[in-house]
Amino acid sequence: MKKHMLLVVLLLLVASFLTAKALKVAFIYVGPVGDAGWTYAHDLGRQYAQQVFGRDVITSFIESVPEGAESESVLRNYAQRGYDLIFATSFGYMDPIINVAKKYPKTIFMHCSGYKTAENVGTYFGRMYEPRFLTGLIAGIMTKSNIIGYVAAHPIPEVIRGINAFALGVKYVNPNAKVHVIWSNTWYDPAMEKEAAISLLDMGADVIAQHQDSPAPQQAAQQYGAYSIGYNSDMREFAPKAYLGAPIWNWGPYYEKVIRDVMAGTWKSEQYWGGMADGVVDIDISDLVPDTVKKLVSVFKDAIIEGKFHPFSGPIYDQDGNLRIPAGDVASDGELLSMDWFVDNVVGTIPK
């Protein structure tokens, strides 16, 4: 009798295991997973989560989804197919997410870089301005012409904030250097981004930084014998003679946390904005950077992580000489998230 009962229990456990519903998690990308940049970094995070959870989670992704109406149909399709959690990884997906979330209240949506939330919509991002400042320190020391080029993506606060943080790092070590900005109005268009970088190099820039997802600006820098600062991931293989380093993303642990919360039924809508202290953002530095510069960067990195230094510490002036952040003050999150002005060592304008 006892053996029979034990067999029944074992069979029930096996049946439970076989019929357990895996959490279905979708990722929507604005670029190709092979961009070596923004989308590549997110997909590394997806792969990390898949490896952590194994059969308990099913992940799916769709790449190169345009922002706007087309993204809304992709979001709706995933929700209709019973996906429990959807990560949408570009700013322009914000309104489509809000629209679809109203119709699928049982689906949880996570939007990267946005600011609109709902009961089943949360937002997440990283304080990329922290490692941006650190790469500015490197660029400010490594430049000889004092002309530093920056290939900017779209004129939104995220991009403007990054340019300013980088420029503040440059200014901290080299008050004579200027950061020259050219807009490509792209996230991923290698040909256009390379042309923008070349126009900066023709102006005399000997360091090129970027916000886009392709390594094209760095390849242009290498072609011209200049240095480059990448973005999103370690891109040294594309321009090994130019690449000084990059501010990089590490999404895996955060994706693991959100998935665990959803599986446990403890997920709640929030606006997450993590920094280097959380590990969601970091800096990669190549061997082209002297050890003395690496040590300086390390000191500032530790100070930021420990809360002893903030890249947007006053006094900070804008291009017109207006005092934006007084001495002794630090920019608030609200000011950072709505930033629409350039600091005083940036050369260029912000399109309306």
UniProtKB/TrEMBL annotation:
Position of the signal peptide: 1-20
CDD domains, per database record: PBP1_BMP-like (cd19963)
Any Pfam family matching the protein: Bmp
CC annotations in GO: plasma membrane
Domain ABC transporter substrate-binding protein PnrA-like: 23-303
Keyword Signal: yes
Keyword Signal on entry: yes
InterPro entries from the UniProt entry: ABC-Purine-Binding (IPR052910), PnrA-like (IPR003760)
Keywords: Signal
Highest rank taxon of the organism: Bacteria
This protein's name: Membrane protein
Lineage: Bacteria, Thermotogati, Thermotogota, Thermotogae, Kosmotogales
